[in-house]
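Ticket #4471: structure output looks truncated?

Reporter: J.K.
Steps to reproduce: submitted the chain below (95 residues) through the standard prediction queue, then opened the result file.
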Amino acid sequence: MHVFEVLRKPVITEKSTILQESGKYVFEIAAKSNKAQVREAVERAFEVKVLAVNVVNTPGEVRRVGGGRPFRSPTVKKAIVTLRPGDTIQLFEGA
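Returned output as attached by the reporter:
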């Protein structure tokens, strides 16, 4: 898998915004990527130093659509990336 195919999109929620204060950023990542690939992709894309990567698999929810037929929303894999103190990612900061 190519380095820049690993990161899909940033996750911007209340919880992820609170994590930014402690130098942690959340990204949606490709399902087959691992921690080493995420670390390399973030370091190359944003020119920062990554201290740690935590990965979370969130299963899709089962919902009822239309005539009561069950539908499963897609499974999402997220990475919480901890940066070196002093480093920031401008994409999240709004600059």
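Triage note (M.O.): checked the attachment and the full token line is present. The two ends are 30 Å apart (CA to CA).
Status: closed, working as intended.
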